[in-house]
Design brief:
Chain lengths: 115, 115
DNA sequence: TGACATACATCGGATACCAATGTATAATGG
DNA sequence: CCATTATACATTGGTATCCGATGTATGTCA
């Protein structure tokens, strides 16, 4: 019943697309960037991250390329495709509509004659 | 992969509490009120509604009372308890923090030196 | 009479997130 | 030198959540 675990649902792909919109990044860096931008309000676990990336790639929204230059472990760098950019725009609109709707209900004027 | 179905996850209880904060209501009316306030952006299905209400009652956040007065099918009217009101306030804050965090990531300044 | 709205309820299926676990490399500090 | 931590990839199984389907029952309206 962890709350932030529940709230993040349905938004993981959108968050990844948002980060990739600005620059290509490898998986681990994507997760860290989401945490940084959200000021650590959102945690992005590995068990979530990699399946999401594979799903986005399968759907043609991102492409990947192994980067072996330099020392350290090889990294898989992801970039947004054209269709991924369009999908992000669509999802950002959906999120806005959804969060506005929640705000309306939470702060909303009650109906005149209840019950 | 219905989107709004995914997005609503983790928020159903909060929405019900929000509606009950303003006045006691029976289940069916709660669902309709959520749809009304959200201008039909949110749908609240029966398969979601009743389990949520039972859960809230089990947790002491709402109480119920059968109303048999008048014609028609008997209705179960729910009211917010004191602890339910406090829980709503807490959840409303959590929601605000969460939606702000998402907004930051979606619209956010990218980190200076990516990759 | 049939369709629709109201009003309760349950169950099973689909899906999503993540803790746990595993492998591997590099850097840091004691 | 050795343990710990950070980086970096990945999978699997458990759990929770929502909702479509289904069922029962009453009242209204064309």
């Amino acid at each position: 019943m962890n709350e932030s675990r529940e709230l993040i649902k349905g938004n993981t792909q959108t968050l990844v697309l948002a980060v990739l919109k600005d620059a290509p990044r490898h998986g681990y860096a994507i997760a860290r960037e989401i945490e940084r931008r959200s000021e650590n309000a959102l945690k992005f676990r590995e068990g979530t991250l990699y399946p999401v990336l594979h799903g986005l790639e399968r759907d043609g929204l991102v492409t990947s390329q192994w980067e072996t230059e330099g020392g350290g472990r090889a990294r898989k760098v992801y970039s947004l495709t054209e269709s991924g950019l369009a999908e992000f725009a669509r999802r950002a609109r959906t999120w806005k509509q959804f969060s506005d709707a929640i705000d309306l209900v939470i702060g909303g004027e009650p109906h005149a004659q209840p019950i």
